[in-house]
Amino acid sequence: MKKSLVLAMAMALGVTASAYAANSFSDVPAGHWAYDSIAKLAAEGVVDGYPDGTFGGSRLITRYEMAQIVARAMAKGASDARLEAEFADELDALGVRVARLEKKSDNVKITGEIRYKYMSTDHGFENDLRTRIWSEGQVNDIWTYTAMVENTQDFSNNVEENETRFRNVFVKGKLGGIKVTAGRYETLFADGNIYDEMVDGAAISYGEKFKVTGFAGKSSGDITTSIDGDDSSGGTYAGAEIAAEFTEDSHLSIGYFNFRDVADVTDLNTQIFCVGADYKIGEVTIKGMYLRGNPDSRPEFDFGDSKSGFTVGLEFMGAEPEEVGSWGIFANYYNQPGSTYIAHTTDANVYDGHGFRGYGVGANYTFAKNLVGTVVYYDTKNRMDTSERDKRIWTDLTFTF
User: Fold this and answer.
1) Confidence class of residue 224 from pLDDT cuts 50, 70 and 90?
2) Inter-axis angle of helices 35-43 and 3-12, to 10 degrees?
3) Per-residue pLDDT tens for 187-217?
4) Are the beta carbons of 236 and 269 closer than 8 angstroms?
5) b/e for 85-108, b at 16 or more Cβ within 10 A?
6) Of 29, 132, 238, 311, which residue is least crowded by CB atoms under 10 Å?
7) Structure-derived torsion over alpha carbons of residues 7, 8, 13, 14, reported in degrees to the nearest 10
8) 376, 360 in Cβ contact below 8 A?
9) Could you tell me which residues come within 8 angstroms of residue 143 by beta carbon, excluding any fewer than 6 positions away?
């Protein structure tokens, strides 16, 4: 073993010239120039010599022996980029992760969700397995990159849904004091009472307890509930929202949303205004929202002359994925004309934008860590033709990791 190697390993471990415990190597007597360093390395378990009790300082060592020494030193907290790079292959064979590479890998977080769903309706059933994998990379201290891949296996023979695709690809960060989200991502407008789908766009916000948000972009081409039930090119959207947190348990929001050319209908200009609030009392959360649209902006379709709608909701506790045995119950009532929503978040029948009224009640329960089950019953009617009524039961089991 060369003198320079012993000194390098000793320095990596912070060895000083002060004496350490006596070593037991017969070929390293007291007074040897490397006595203290070798004693420290031996005591730390970094070097162990040969079966005959010698250190073998004059012998040539193999790359594998050297890699073992480097690995033991790293286990004690030592770090030397040159040594780690030189013996990277041998360290990998030993199952040792090089610190600087491990730090780099920590920049990427992988999470996922697997949801099995069965929904029975008055007109049939839906039965599918949806898998989502999120990958979040840390670009720097204030910017992240997120991508989400989704696969849906439709057991009710809807072949179009048996596909895998990137559903989200976006960046998030700050420019000064302004928060920015840009790319393709899922978003909720008005808690989903107006829109719950993907967008290709950007959102900027400023503030915390009093937050102002502006957004614009292209809405999803997957919208099938907004006008005529067919997939669309999406159209464009823009809007702004002001949200205020008065206390930890009380919030108020005011928003304005404008959608143009939705469902390939040119010159279609949908404007929706909303005011929402929620208040928590103990384990009970009460929430409500008022929405006002402009039916005159949709002359091609008969949505009636109703402009105003509302939703109210009640929640008690709620299942927490991390807390086994946690549970919750909830109920929502909807009364919204077609002029007040584009792609509603509810899983009830919303009658392709003609307007709907009705309710949903449900419960959720955490069976095991990160395993939550949900059951919901919906009963809704078409606002334009109250003879149309749909009852459905939604069940799902969701695994997260």
Assistant:
1) very low
2) 50
3) 999 999 999 988 999 999 999 899 999 999 9
4) no
5) eebeebbeeeebebeeeeeeeeee
6) 29
7) 60
8) yes
9) 171, 172, 173, 174
d(CA 333, CA 311): 6
- The overall longest dimension of the chain from CA atoms, in Å, is 102
* 103: Cβ contacts below 8 Å, ≥ 6 apart: none
Gyration radius of the chain over CA positions:
31
The partner residues of 179 in beta bridges, in order of sequence, read: 174, 205
Tell me the per-residue pLDDT of 117-170, one tens digit each, with 9 for 90 and over: 999 987 788 899 999 999 999 888 899 999 999 998 888 765 555 678 888 999
Between CA 170 and CA 37 the distance in angstroms is 52
Residue 393 β-bridge partners = 120, 377
When mean pLDDT is compared over 118-132, 169-183, 257-271, the highest value belongs to: 169-183
β-bridge mates for residue 311, sequence order: 289, 334
Strand ranges in 190-307 using DSSP code E only, listed in sequence order: 195-206, 210-219, 236-247, 250-260, 269-281, 284-292
Q: Could you report how far apart the first and last alpha carbons of the chain are, in Å?
A: 48
DSSP string of 90-141, one letter each residue = HHHHTTPPPHHHHHHHTTEEEEEEEEEEEEEETTEEEEEEEEEEEEEEE-SS
Q: Which residues pair with 278 in a beta bridge?
A: 251, 287
Residue that is written with structure tokens 């143009």 in the block: 260
CB atoms within 10 A of CB 196: 19
Helical (H) or strand (E) element with 335 = strand 327-337
Report whether pLDDT(48) > 90: no
Residue 296 has pLDDT above 70, yes or no: no
Q: What DSSP letter does each residue of 158-212 carry, written as one string?
A: -GGGBEEEEEEEEEEEEETTEEEEEEEEEEEEGGGTSEEEEEEEEEEEE-SSEEE
Beta-bridged to residue 397, according to DSSP, are 116, 373
Residue type, 87: F
Residue 240 bridge partners (DSSP): 214, 256
The two three-digit tokens of residue 80, written as one number:
């030397």
How far apart CA 11 and CA 270 sit, in angstroms, is 70
